[in-house]
Write a structure and sequence with these properties.
Five copies of one chain form a homopentamer.
Chain A lengths: L3 H8 L6 H11 L10 E5 L2 H4 L2 H5 L8 H11 L3 E4 L1 H5 L11 E4 L1 E2 L12 E2 L3 H6 L4 E6 L6 H17 L3 E6 L14 H13 L4 E5 L8 H9 L7 H11 L6 E5 L6 H13 L4 E3 L2 H4 L3 H16 L1
Parallel strand pairs in A: 1-2, 1-10, 2-3, 3-6, 6-7, 7-8, 8-9, 9-10
Antiparallel strand pairs in A: 4-5
Helix pairs in contact in A: 9-11, 11-12, 12-14
């Protein structure tokens, strides 16, 4: 039976069709966090985004696309997200075992642009033929070419929802409009979450915000209205609020591989601030399988508590 | 029964199909100004346009998308306009309670371009599935990329009207062709209203014009033909005239939050000059709900008189 | 019954379908010049092209879109041409009273580019729903972006003809390839007429050519082959010849408002040189209605003689 | 009955559908060279490409589009090629009298770009409604925008062949990659022929190659493999070989008007080298009709011999 | 009966439809290497890529497109790959004799860009009408315009697979992001293989990697994780691993014509490192037919061993 919290969350999406809400429910009701309204997702797009050796040489079994399906299932993640090739390589073998998110655009680092834009590398039709429950899409607010990304997302989201697929948006500010430090500034991350939600995202993924404030106009308002910016939980709370006052599933990414205790502390902050969960990529698949499962279990315990 | 003034206004649109005229009638016959031929619309796109904290921190309940539906209904506005995400968040819950306008393009300030162009962030099909009566679209005449905007609007307006949706155009001159002061110059605002109407807009929204004249060729004509430019009511009258001699619904935006008495004075000028009404965003949702309703009521009283 | 001259002209279009030929016939057989094979058309796109005050302040009733329908009908013009908004505003009320030409692209002067290109502001479908008999399209040969215009025209002309609409092309050389004086040079105007006809235009509209020759290669040929360039009638004859040797309807625009006698003299030159007629915009609607009708009547008398 | 040579040539196209092969047969079996496997085509796109006076003032009857149909028929050409307008002007009157090639892209000289690209000025559907047997398309290999041309040709060729139309490609190297002298260099012309054939052209048209070699890498190979470059017949033979070893119809253009004897000498070279024929434009329509027919007859006699 | 190794390989593609798997099986079960799980493919796109004389003058019979079909069949290759024109020239005559791969994009050297992008020169529909079993597509990772290539490939691959065609991707790093030496650097080649596989390629083709490492971030990882880079077999093994751990068919190109013994040594390295085979173009068709067949036989013997 569906938990009260999941019912409540699905209620936020009452303008979506039954297909979209069913796929959101499938993710919320899958794995170790089923029914809690929290989510931990395994994303593996780093082979494309950073290259195979940088991604998988630290733990060579991860070169094999089947490894990640198995890891996500064994660890009890809510969903597994990857680009077309990685999903094609295992979707048949693991059909029905875990909700899949087809990441529809990707960017490589064989050239590093100042104003990046991902290439569309798959389609809604691909997601359907591979049995996915959602599509994923990355936008870079602040990039001089963000308009093209927003418009690609608009078209993809419209098509995906027509077919009952949920829409997950990675919203990572970058480019001409934003300083390096500003990419994770509190005001900028909150703005990025708002944009993704306004664009129709069902699930929004942002980076953990720092205490930095980037935009002059925003700074004045944060000061005048005394938005709390410490500790991390307060910043998470502000981003959750900025994402339709908690009425959109908002999850945070862990970023580069880091010390376990730091990561755990972040998860505690996300939970305390009302975040819906985490996406844990490099911190899971770049270590031996048993260690990865142990870490994911620790994280899920915190969210489940 | 339909009032004479509403019938007259609908007569201006006798080349449109029944669907478009019905949706115009729904807006003209809704809320406190029903039947008067005047309109006050609540627009809430600032979360996207300026960021969530700058928009909602002054009145935190406004972070919640449901807040604005409820405010527009309680205040008796003719319609509520917002981007895709905000409408998706409440359209089911408030279905049928107030005419909705889906704002189909939006622009964020994580990058501020000299020649801005909004991204298309929703579709006519989205407007239909959410039960909207109209679509909204922003153009920036004077921008080096205005052609692209006009052509996007052309396609959207054509599709919207086929499906019986009304078309509301925000026409805000900006960019390479216009000085900062020129953005609200009388000649430029009048020109912007004309362009929107020629592009097929059913409802045109412009900023209140100042007494400044921007274009050298226009200045000569204003002088030679003695177009009156004082007081505000005369300027409003000139813009109404420039918008097909009053045969298109033309409403004015309030702009940034300002002193109530100044705002009320502007509304009196709009009414006296033959304007059809106002769009009141930040001046309503950035203050406590009760104050907002009181202010909106004062404004509507003026229009209803 | 159809006159011999109209039958002859329709014979030039014997590769077009019945719909196109019927709409050409409707225009040739309408108004005071019906059956003569000559045409005077009222075009009112200046509200968009130059702004409302510059266009209509000299004769304020002209702000009203209905004014122009009525003027064109009263004066006995062959057709009335305007952008989408202006036609939408009166097409229902004046349905069937005069052939309408929907001008499908327009350009405003809130920014003045060196290599201009008009925006597509309406569609063939719009022309059909508004009961038009033709579509109009402006190209600027000599502009660095002319290719885009030609290709837009190609698509629009193909679609229009499929639906039986005639195609009217305004061919105005401008941009990087042409000096200011060259815009009306005889060789350039003749070339512009040829291009429009090759692009499939049924009716070609150009500016009256001056005696200037612009292109070095052309100058040699004009000298060597002794093309006569004086008086105006000879230049008109050369442009008519350049427009498929008179086998395409070619009309000339009057340009800015000017002295009546100069204008009349030009009309005499057009007639003497074998031109098919005139487009008279600012010279008609920028003066009081009675004066405009009187002037148009004088012009039509010359063509009818 | 079909000649052996025509059957052999049609055999080269055995992967094309019956429609395409039938239209190739129609051209090969029409006019004075019917059945010889040789072709002389009259192309008249100079009105667009160079302007009307430069093209037709030397022989004023040529201003009339009907003139060229009649000339091509009277002279016994295999086909007549022209842009949309010129074909629209006579296709009905001369229906069925000579195979027509609709030239689908054209370029004017009101602006002369360093990296030119023609505009698409007609469609496959136009070719069908006008009863054409083939479409023509110009590419400029060496231009910085050649990719756009190749891709336009790809789409047009695919559509044309589906409808049974043959595809004729004018392959004229120009632009950033090529020096002026290189435009007719042997290696470059051979390369241009290869590219057109690889793009799916049924008939390839190139300029006559000079003895110049343009590309450093190619020069080495020509020297090492001792490709003969004198006399002209050898160069023709090399280009024929480069065009699928003679398994594609390859014809040569005459270029600007020149002395008759030089032209005749070139035709002899083309024939001796195994070329399939000539396109003769300015050398025919820029002289009086009788002289043109006499010249074309001399040329055809050489090919027929 | 299908061999165990072929069954195993087909198992990697169990998310593809029966059509795609059947076409992969056809290639794996054709020619001298049938059933071994290894492949040698004859590609002949050099006429387009380098020009006809540079490609075919060393062995003139190769100017004839039929030559290559016959060579590939006689030598027992698994498949023959070529651009549209070359396949059109022989597909009917050699129908059913060897699996064909239509190379859908191509690039010529009449202009050599710093950031190259091939033109799309054929379609999936062309591949179907010519009886091909696969389409081929080249991407240049590292090029500033790679996004456009990836997106073209995405669309083509999606369409091809829908129709049961296999997708072969040539992944050749070039352009602004990569030094000349970096084009064959181990980290770059491995990254290129990963990208092609993530884009949905069924068969990936890369250049043989050198021992050079290009990207600073990658270098650190190769050092830290001790990826072996000598001898060649180890580098091949690393690229195979980077291409989904051997779960995608990965073949290597031979490049420019070279000494036979060096080539044979490379083939031994490919085999030892677990590569699936070779594409042998210039090293086969630029020598007399008998020598080419002898060399291809030596190569196949190594793979078959």
């Amino acid at each position: 039976m569906m938990s009260g919290r999941v019912k409540e969350i699905l209620g936020y999406y009452d303008s979506e069709n039954v297909g979209v809400r069913s796929n959101l429910a499938r993710m919320l009701n899958h794995g170790r966090l089923a029914g809690t309204g929290r989510m931990v997702i395994l994303p593996v797009d780093q082979g494309f985004e950073h290259g195979p050796a940088r991604s998988f040489a630290p733990n060579p079994p991860a070169y094999n696309p089947l490894y990640h399906f198995e890891l996500a299932i064994a660890a009890g993640c809510n969903a597994y997200a990857a680009p077309l090739g990685f999903l094609e390589a295992g979707a048949a073998q693991f059909a029905g075992e875990i909700p899949l998110i087809l990441k529809l655009n990707n960017h490589d680092l064989l050239l590093d642009e100042h104003d990046p834009i991902s290439a569309v590398t798959g389609s809604v039709k691909d997601a359907l033929r591979l049995g996915c429950g959602a599509v994923g899409f990355t936008i870079y607010p602040g990039s001089a070419v963000r308009r093209e990304m927003y418009q690609e997302l608009q078209k993809i989201a419209e098509e995906a929802k027509q077919f009952g697929l949920a829409v997950v948006v990675w919203s990572y500010p970058r480019g001409s409009g934003i300083s390096k430090e500003g990419e994770t500034a509190l005001d900028v991350v909150a703005y990025a979450a708002q944009i993704a939600a306004q664009l129709g995202a069902n699930i929004v993924k942002v980076k953990l915000p720092s205490a930095h404030l980037e935009q002059a106009e925003a700074k004045k308002v944060y000061a005048a209205t005394r938005v709390p910016i410490e500790p991390l939980a307060e910043r998470v709370r502000h981003v959750v609020q900025s994402c339709f006052d908690g009425r959109r599933i908002l999850i945070f990414s862990g970023g580069a591989r880091e010390e376990d205790e730091a990561l755990i502390e972040e998860v505690r902050g996300i939970r305390a601030g009302g975040g819906f969960g985490s996406i844990i990529g490099r911190n899971s698949f770049q270590r031996p399988r048993a260690e990865a499962i142990a870490l994911l279990n620790r994280i899920m315990e915190i969210y489940a508590a």
